[in-house]
Protein backbone atom coordinates (compact mmCIF):
# COMPACT_ATOMS: atom_id res chain seq x y z
CA UNK A 1 0.00 0.00 0.00
CA UNK A 2 1.37 3.43 -0.93
CA UNK A 3 1.47 6.44 1.40
CA UNK A 4 -2.08 7.48 0.58
CA UNK A 5 -5.00 5.09 0.70
CA UNK A 6 -6.48 5.13 -2.80
CA UNK A 7 -10.27 5.16 -3.09
CA UNK A 8 -12.66 4.46 -5.91
CA UNK A 9 -16.21 5.83 -5.81
CA UNK A 10 -18.97 3.81 -7.47
CA UNK A 11 -21.85 6.11 -8.57
CA UNK A 12 -22.09 9.86 -8.96
CA UNK A 13 -25.35 10.79 -7.21
CA UNK A 14 -25.92 13.26 -4.41
CA UNK A 15 -24.57 11.15 -1.56
CA UNK A 16 -21.46 10.22 -3.56
CA UNK A 17 -20.86 13.92 -4.24
CA UNK A 18 -21.05 14.92 -0.57
CA UNK A 19 -19.03 11.99 0.76
CA UNK A 20 -16.34 12.47 -1.87
CA UNK A 21 -16.05 16.08 -0.80
CA UNK A 22 -15.38 14.89 2.76
CA UNK A 23 -12.94 12.21 1.56
CA UNK A 24 -10.83 14.91 -0.01
CA UNK A 25 -10.45 16.57 3.40
CA UNK A 26 -8.41 13.62 4.66
CA UNK A 27 -4.67 14.14 4.06
CA UNK A 28 -3.87 10.42 3.79
CA UNK A 29 -6.51 9.70 1.11
CA UNK A 30 -6.36 9.91 -2.67
CA UNK A 31 -9.71 9.69 -4.43
CA UNK A 32 -8.25 8.03 -7.48
CA UNK A 33 -11.22 6.76 -9.49
CA UNK A 34 -14.96 7.14 -10.03
CA UNK A 35 -17.45 5.18 -12.11
CA UNK A 36 -20.89 5.86 -13.52
CA UNK A 37 -23.12 4.00 -15.94
CA UNK A 38 -22.62 6.99 -18.25
CA UNK A 39 -18.97 7.91 -18.82
CA UNK A 40 -19.72 11.65 -19.30
CA UNK A 41 -21.20 11.73 -15.79
CA UNK A 42 -18.10 10.09 -14.38
CA UNK A 43 -15.92 12.57 -16.26
CA UNK A 44 -17.94 15.51 -14.94
CA UNK A 45 -17.76 14.17 -11.38
CA UNK A 46 -14.02 13.55 -11.77
CA UNK A 47 -13.42 17.09 -12.99
CA UNK A 48 -15.34 18.55 -10.05
CA UNK A 49 -13.44 16.54 -7.43
CA UNK A 50 -10.00 16.34 -9.05
CA UNK A 51 -10.24 12.58 -9.67
CA UNK A 52 -7.71 11.19 -12.14
CA UNK A 53 -9.54 8.13 -13.47
CA UNK A 54 -13.22 8.25 -14.57
CA UNK A 55 -14.81 4.99 -15.71
CA UNK A 56 -18.06 4.24 -17.54
CA UNK A 57 -18.56 0.90 -15.77
CA UNK A 58 -17.95 -0.05 -12.17
CA UNK A 59 -16.27 -3.27 -13.33
CA UNK A 60 -13.54 -1.20 -14.95
CA UNK A 61 -12.98 0.64 -11.69
CA UNK A 62 -12.77 -2.66 -9.81
CA UNK A 63 -10.22 -3.92 -12.33
CA UNK A 64 -7.95 -0.95 -11.56
CA UNK A 65 -5.07 -2.45 -9.52
CA UNK A 66 -4.30 0.88 -7.86
CA UNK A 67 -7.68 1.18 -6.09
CA UNK A 68 -7.45 0.04 -2.44
CA UNK A 69 -10.92 0.91 -1.09
CA UNK A 70 -14.27 1.14 -2.86
CA UNK A 71 -17.09 3.36 -1.66
CA UNK A 72 -20.42 1.99 -2.94
CA UNK A 73 -23.04 4.73 -3.37
CA UNK A 74 -25.36 3.12 -5.92
CA UNK A 75 -29.12 2.72 -5.41
CA UNK A 76 -29.93 0.16 -2.72
CA UNK A 77 -30.82 -2.62 -5.15
CA UNK A 78 -27.24 -2.66 -6.50
CA UNK A 79 -25.41 -2.66 -3.15
CA UNK A 80 -25.10 -6.43 -2.95
CA UNK A 81 -23.96 -6.85 -6.55
CA UNK A 82 -21.30 -4.14 -6.42
CA UNK A 83 -20.06 -4.98 -2.93
CA UNK A 84 -19.69 -8.65 -3.81
CA UNK A 85 -17.84 -7.79 -7.02
CA UNK A 86 -15.53 -5.39 -5.16
CA UNK A 87 -14.66 -8.01 -2.56
CA UNK A 88 -14.04 -10.58 -5.29
CA UNK A 89 -11.67 -8.04 -6.86
CA UNK A 90 -9.75 -7.83 -3.59
CA UNK A 91 -10.94 -4.35 -2.61
CA UNK A 92 -11.88 -3.13 0.85
CA UNK A 93 -15.45 -1.77 0.90
CA UNK A 94 -17.48 0.96 2.56
CA UNK A 95 -21.08 0.48 1.39
CA UNK A 96 -23.88 2.96 1.88
CA UNK A 97 -26.75 1.93 4.10
CA UNK A 98 -28.62 -0.31 3.89
CA UNK A 99 -25.73 -2.55 2.86
CA UNK A 100 -28.27 -4.90 1.26
CA UNK A 101 -32.05 -5.31 1.22
CA UNK A 102 -32.23 -8.83 2.65
CA UNK A 103 -30.50 -10.75 5.46
CA UNK A 104 -29.38 -13.45 3.02
CA UNK A 105 -27.62 -10.96 0.75
CA UNK A 106 -25.92 -9.28 3.70
CA UNK A 107 -24.79 -12.62 5.10
CA UNK A 108 -23.36 -13.43 1.68
CA UNK A 109 -21.05 -10.39 1.51
CA UNK A 110 -20.16 -10.60 5.21
CA UNK A 111 -19.04 -14.20 4.77
CA UNK A 112 -17.10 -13.28 1.63
CA UNK A 113 -15.31 -10.36 3.32
CA UNK A 114 -14.33 -12.56 6.24
CA UNK A 115 -13.19 -15.35 3.92
CA UNK A 116 -11.00 -12.94 1.92
CA UNK A 117 -9.71 -11.01 4.97
CA UNK A 118 -10.98 -7.70 3.58
CA UNK A 119 -12.43 -4.70 5.39
CA UNK A 120 -16.19 -4.24 5.00
CA UNK A 121 -18.46 -1.75 6.74
CA UNK A 122 -21.97 -0.43 6.32
CA UNK A 123 -21.90 3.36 6.11
CA UNK A 124 -24.11 4.34 9.03
CA UNK A 125 -22.28 7.61 9.65
CA UNK A 126 -24.32 8.36 12.78
CA UNK A 127 -22.28 5.80 14.71
CA UNK A 128 -19.20 8.01 14.29
CA UNK A 129 -20.80 11.36 15.04
CA UNK A 130 -18.86 12.75 18.05
CA UNK A 131 -22.04 13.43 20.05
CA UNK A 132 -23.38 9.93 19.44
CA UNK A 133 -20.01 8.51 20.50
CA UNK A 134 -20.14 10.69 23.64
CA UNK A 135 -23.72 9.60 24.30
CA UNK A 136 -22.65 5.98 24.26
CA UNK A 137 -19.87 6.74 26.72
CA UNK A 138 -22.24 8.61 29.05
CA UNK A 139 -24.74 5.76 29.02
CA UNK A 140 -22.03 3.19 29.78
CA UNK A 141 -20.83 5.41 32.63
CA UNK A 142 -24.33 5.42 34.14
CA UNK A 143 -24.88 9.18 33.84
CA UNK A 144 -28.62 8.66 33.23
CA UNK A 145 -28.84 5.32 35.00
CA UNK A 146 -30.21 2.30 33.19
CA UNK A 147 -31.76 3.02 29.79
CA UNK A 148 -35.42 2.03 29.88
CA UNK A 149 -36.92 3.76 26.87
CA UNK A 150 -35.86 5.30 23.57
CA UNK A 151 -37.92 7.49 21.23
CA UNK A 152 -36.52 8.22 17.78
CA UNK A 153 -38.02 9.31 14.45
CA UNK A 154 -37.01 10.45 10.99
CA UNK A 155 -39.47 11.49 8.31
CA UNK A 156 -40.58 14.11 5.84
CA UNK A 157 -43.46 14.48 3.35
CA UNK A 158 -42.43 13.48 -0.16
CA UNK A 159 -45.02 13.81 -2.95
CA UNK A 160 -45.80 10.45 -4.43
CA UNK A 161 -43.94 9.77 -7.67
CA UNK A 162 -43.64 6.12 -8.73
CA UNK A 163 -40.40 6.95 -10.54
CA UNK A 164 -38.70 8.39 -7.44
CA UNK A 165 -36.37 5.89 -5.80
CA UNK A 166 -38.07 6.23 -2.40
CA UNK A 167 -41.47 5.35 -3.88
CA UNK A 168 -40.21 2.62 -6.21
CA UNK A 169 -40.06 -0.95 -4.91
CA UNK A 170 -37.81 -2.01 -7.79
CA UNK A 171 -35.23 0.50 -6.50
CA UNK A 172 -35.57 -0.64 -2.89
CA UNK A 173 -37.83 2.26 -1.94
CA UNK A 174 -39.79 2.92 1.24
CA UNK A 175 -39.23 4.88 4.41
CA UNK A 176 -37.96 2.12 6.70
CA UNK A 177 -34.78 0.99 4.96
CA UNK A 178 -33.78 4.51 3.89
CA UNK A 179 -34.88 6.68 6.83
CA UNK A 180 -35.97 4.27 9.55
CA UNK A 181 -32.59 2.59 9.60
CA UNK A 182 -31.29 5.57 11.59
CA UNK A 183 -33.69 5.31 14.57
CA UNK A 184 -33.49 1.50 14.46
CA UNK A 185 -29.68 1.64 14.52
CA UNK A 186 -29.86 4.18 17.35
CA UNK A 187 -32.04 1.83 19.41
CA UNK A 188 -29.64 -1.03 18.72
CA UNK A 189 -26.72 1.11 19.90
CA UNK A 190 -28.36 1.71 23.28
CA UNK A 191 -30.42 -1.42 23.88
CA UNK A 192 -29.14 -4.06 21.46
CA UNK A 193 -31.16 -6.35 19.23
CA UNK A 194 -34.79 -6.53 20.39
CA UNK A 195 -36.57 -9.66 21.53
CA UNK A 196 -39.89 -8.40 20.16
CA UNK A 197 -40.72 -6.35 17.07
CA UNK A 198 -44.24 -4.97 16.47
CA UNK A 199 -44.77 -2.78 13.41
CA UNK A 200 -47.69 -0.89 11.93
CA UNK A 201 -47.77 1.29 8.84
CA UNK A 202 -49.15 1.92 5.37
CA UNK A 203 -48.13 0.75 1.90
CA UNK A 204 -48.13 2.56 -1.41
CA UNK A 205 -47.11 0.58 -4.46
CA UNK A 206 -45.37 -2.09 -2.42
CA UNK A 207 -43.24 0.24 -0.29
CA UNK A 208 -43.89 1.53 3.20
CA UNK A 209 -45.04 5.14 3.14
CA UNK A 210 -44.86 5.30 6.93
CA UNK A 211 -44.14 2.91 9.76
CA UNK A 212 -44.08 2.88 13.53
CA UNK A 213 -42.17 0.14 15.31
CA UNK A 214 -42.14 -1.01 18.92
CA UNK A 215 -38.93 -2.79 19.87
CA UNK A 216 -39.29 -4.78 23.07
CA UNK A 217 -36.59 -6.10 25.37
CA UNK A 218 -36.54 -8.59 28.22
CA UNK A 219 -37.34 -6.85 31.47
CA UNK A 220 -39.59 -4.22 29.90
CA UNK A 221 -37.15 -1.79 28.27
CA UNK A 222 -38.39 -0.65 24.87
CA UNK A 223 -37.91 1.67 21.94
CA UNK A 224 -40.52 3.43 19.83
CA UNK A 225 -39.13 4.34 16.42
CA UNK A 226 -40.73 5.67 13.28
CA UNK A 227 -40.13 6.82 9.73
CA UNK A 228 -42.37 8.45 7.16
CA UNK A 229 -42.61 9.77 3.63
CA UNK A 230 -45.97 11.32 4.49
CA UNK A 231 -45.40 13.41 7.61
CA UNK A 232 -42.75 15.83 8.89
CA UNK A 233 -41.73 13.73 11.89
CA UNK A 234 -39.65 15.38 14.59
CA UNK A 235 -36.21 14.23 13.46
CA UNK A 236 -34.66 13.69 16.84
CA UNK A 237 -34.53 11.33 19.79
CA UNK A 238 -34.94 11.07 23.55
CA UNK A 239 -33.22 8.49 25.73
CA UNK A 240 -34.88 7.89 29.10
CA UNK A 241 -32.89 6.37 31.92
CA UNK A 242 -33.69 5.56 35.54
CA UNK A 243 -31.73 8.62 36.68
CA UNK A 244 -32.12 11.12 33.85
CA UNK A 245 -32.51 11.63 30.14
CA UNK A 246 -30.71 12.72 27.01
CA UNK A 247 -32.41 14.74 24.29
CA UNK A 248 -31.25 15.01 20.70
CA UNK A 249 -33.44 17.89 19.51
CA UNK A 250 -32.39 17.85 15.87
CA UNK A 251 -31.69 15.43 13.03
CA UNK A 252 -30.74 12.13 14.60
CA UNK A 253 -28.49 11.06 11.75
CA UNK A 254 -25.96 13.87 12.32
CA UNK A 255 -26.69 15.89 15.49
CA UNK A 256 -24.58 18.88 16.49
CA UNK A 257 -26.06 19.28 19.97
CA UNK A 258 -27.60 17.22 22.74
CA UNK A 259 -29.03 17.96 26.17
CA UNK A 260 -27.88 15.70 29.01
CA UNK A 261 -29.95 16.08 32.17
CA UNK A 262 -30.74 19.66 31.19
CA UNK A 263 -27.20 20.65 30.18
CA UNK A 264 -26.50 21.31 26.50
CA UNK A 265 -23.43 19.92 24.75
CA UNK A 266 -22.32 20.84 21.22
CA UNK A 267 -19.68 19.90 18.69
CA UNK A 268 -18.37 21.48 15.52
CA UNK A 269 -18.93 19.38 12.42
CA UNK A 270 -16.03 18.35 10.19
CA UNK A 271 -16.89 18.86 6.55
CA UNK A 272 -20.41 17.65 5.81
CA UNK A 273 -20.26 15.27 8.78
CA UNK A 274 -18.85 12.16 7.09
CA UNK A 275 -15.21 12.78 8.03
CA UNK A 276 -15.23 10.75 11.30
CA UNK A 277 -16.67 7.70 9.52
CA UNK A 278 -14.19 7.97 6.66
CA UNK A 279 -11.28 8.46 9.04
CA UNK A 280 -12.35 5.27 10.82
CA UNK A 281 -12.20 3.29 7.57
CA UNK A 282 -8.72 4.60 6.80
CA UNK A 283 -7.52 3.82 10.34
CA UNK A 284 -8.82 0.24 10.30
CA UNK A 285 -7.62 -0.59 6.78
CA UNK A 286 -4.15 0.77 7.51
CA UNK A 287 -4.04 -1.32 10.70
CA UNK A 288 -4.92 -4.44 8.73
CA UNK A 289 -8.26 -4.79 10.50
CA UNK A 290 -11.34 -6.11 8.69
CA UNK A 291 -14.09 -4.53 10.78
CA UNK A 292 -14.77 -1.42 12.84
CA UNK A 293 -15.59 -2.10 16.50
CA UNK A 294 -18.00 0.85 16.30
CA UNK A 295 -19.98 -0.64 13.40
CA UNK A 296 -19.31 -4.36 13.27
CA UNK A 297 -20.61 -6.72 10.64
CA UNK A 298 -22.55 -8.61 13.31
CA UNK A 299 -24.22 -5.33 14.24
CA UNK A 300 -25.20 -4.72 10.62
CA UNK A 301 -26.65 -8.23 10.47
CA UNK A 302 -28.65 -7.62 13.66
CA UNK A 303 -30.02 -4.30 12.37
CA UNK A 304 -30.97 -5.99 9.09
CA UNK A 305 -32.87 -8.67 11.02
CA UNK A 306 -34.84 -6.01 12.90
CA UNK A 307 -35.60 -4.03 9.73
CA UNK A 308 -36.75 -7.18 7.97
CA UNK A 309 -38.98 -8.29 10.85
CA UNK A 310 -40.66 -4.86 10.86
CA UNK A 311 -40.96 -4.68 7.06
CA UNK A 312 -42.59 -8.10 6.80
CA UNK A 313 -45.30 -7.09 9.27
CA UNK A 314 -46.46 -4.24 7.04
CA UNK A 315 -46.18 -6.24 3.82
CA UNK A 316 -42.87 -4.99 2.41
CA UNK A 317 -41.05 -7.69 0.44
CA UNK A 318 -37.92 -7.09 -1.65
CA UNK A 319 -37.75 -10.68 -2.95
CA UNK A 320 -36.47 -10.73 -6.52
CA UNK A 321 -35.53 -7.04 -6.49
CA UNK A 322 -31.94 -7.12 -5.32
CA UNK A 323 -29.24 -7.43 -7.96
CA UNK A 324 -26.34 -9.85 -7.68
TrEMBL record:
Protein name: Gfo/Idh/MocA family protein
Keyword Kinase applies: no
Pfam families reported for this sequence: GFO_IDH_MocA, GFO_IDH_MocA_C3
Domain GFO/IDH/MocA-like oxidoreductase: 134-246
Similarity remark: Belongs to the Gfo/Idh/MocA family.
Taxonomy of the source species: Bacteria, Bacillati, Actinomycetota, Actinomycetes, Pseudonocardiales
Segments forming domain Gfo/Idh/MocA-like oxidoreductase N-terminal: 5-121
Protein's UniProt keywords contain Oxidoreductase: yes
Record's keyword terms, sorted: Oxidoreductase
Signal peptide: none
Native source species: Saccharothrix lopnurensis
Amino acid sequence: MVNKLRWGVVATGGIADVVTGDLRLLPDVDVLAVSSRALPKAEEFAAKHGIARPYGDYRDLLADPDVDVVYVATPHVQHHEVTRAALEAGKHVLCEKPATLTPAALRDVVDLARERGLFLMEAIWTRFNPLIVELGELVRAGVIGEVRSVRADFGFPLPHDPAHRLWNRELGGGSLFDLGIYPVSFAHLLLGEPDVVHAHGSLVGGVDAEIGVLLGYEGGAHALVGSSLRSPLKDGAVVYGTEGLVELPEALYNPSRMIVNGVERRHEQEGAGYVPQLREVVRRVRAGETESPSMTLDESLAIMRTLTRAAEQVGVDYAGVEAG
